[in-house]
Amino acid sequence: PAISILLARDSALRSAAYLTAVYAAQWHFFVAAQTDMQFVVSAALVSIVVVTMFRVRIVAEVAGFVAEQEKLQAQKDLIESQMELNQEIKAFLPAEIYERVIDQRTRKKTTVLQAMDEALRPRLKTVACLLSDIRGFTQKSKDLHGFIYNGAIPNIRICTETVEAYRGIPRLIGDAVIAYFDDRSPETLIRDALACGFALIDANRQWNALTPPSENVRRFVILTFGEAVVGNIGGQDSSREITALGPPINLASRLDPVTKEPALAEILGPESLILSRTAAEAARFCFRDLHVVEISLVALGIDVRDFPEETSMFLVPCDAHNTALLSFQTESHNEEATSATDSKEYAQ
Q1: 3-state DSSP call for residue 288?
Q2: Is 29 helix (H, G, I), strand (E, B) or coil?
Q3: N or C: fewer beta carbons within 10 Å in the chain?
Q4: Can you state the angle between helices 37-92 and 112-119, rounded to 10 degrees?
Q5: Residue 296 in this model has a pLDDT that exceeds 70
Q6: Of residues 51 and 139, which shows the higher confidence score?
Q7: Nearest to residue 178, comparing CAs of 278, 245, 119, 121?
Q8: Digit-coded pLDDT (tens) for 19-38
Q9: What is the pLDDT of residue 237?
Q10: Could you give the CA distance from residue 67 to residue 58 in angstroms, rounded to a whole number?
């Protein structure tokens, strides 16, 4: 009976009932053999109790195993849903903002919305601002299937990816790529912005070398520096607007039309980074050997709208000297930052 009970894998109640039926079926033979019935009853009760306890324990273990598997599956589903949510958030946020949101969630154990609200709360910060738009875009944009699809859109995507590679926060207004760099020391900001500006110029040069003339893109890259309010200036839903407001942004938008002045046509070129006075001062502070060319706007009879104090424009040529200097300084700075991070992680 015990072997058959083990093989049957029935419940505790059915196993006890089966064992009772076996003893009942043998009762006549116990009586005929003149067996002491007290022993038979005692053996029956003990065997029923043992089988019942054995079955209950097995059922409990099986139920515990199933519950543990369900718990693990629930945890797996939760992790997968969180990963999917993170990917959805990442698809709608600049890479730098996304990293800040994840950092908020990790450090403060907040919800996604709470982390986003905190990371995007408007703050006054020192920023470096880059602006670059496509020259002659209005005329060229009439060619929707040629210049727009094959030239402008891929070029804008390359510019956006370049900005994010240097931890910039990009924003697109038509064909113009605007980016700001914040949340770091002023020296680091100007390093990253200069390096990003050089990378944008180089990326655009490579793009034009690989595409037919009809799809070539001509850009100027303007760099300004100063204090601005950055973060979400819109609502808390789909109306979020991540941007920067302040003099550096406004000055960049005012310097852009200045670059179209006929008096500057022979001076400016797409191979130079255009800096405001404050940006040039910050660049010279970080890179004392940087080649910077000052252009007097007063001598050319050019005024910068709303910024009369901007009497000069500064060019940083993307020549071999400046490129090598900037690359060396940036790599050294990154190595120092990595070393400091490694030391901090080791200490923790």
Answers
A1: coil
A2: helix
A3: C
A4: 30
A5: yes
A6: 139
A7: 245
A8: 788 888 888 888 888 888 88
A9: 67
A10: 14
How far is it, in rounded angstroms, from Cα 304 to Cα 312? 9
Are 332 and 287 in contact by the 8 Å Cβ rule? The answer is no
Parallel, antiparallel, or unpaired for β 123-132 and 176-181? antiparallel
Tokens representing 286 are 């970080």
- In the chain the beta strands, taken as DSSP E runs, fall at 123-132, 169-173, 176-181, 221-232, 242-245, 272-275, 293-296, 312-317
| Distance from the first to the final alpha carbon of the chain | 63
192 three-state secondary structure? helix
Query: What does the alpha-carbon distance between residue 220 and residue 257 come to, in Å, rounded to a whole number?
Result: 11
Question: pLDDT tens digits, residue range 159-211?
Answer: 999 999 999 999 998 889 999 999 889 999 999 999 999 999 999 999 999 98
pTM of the prediction? Answer: 0.73
Tokens of 38: 């007290």
In angstroms, the CA 9 to CA 109 distance is: 47
Residue 224: helix, strand or coil by DSSP? strand
Sign, CA torsion 278/284/290/296: positive
Do the Cβ atoms of 249 and 180 come closer than 8 Å? yes
CA-wise closest residue to 225 among 181, 258, 260: 181
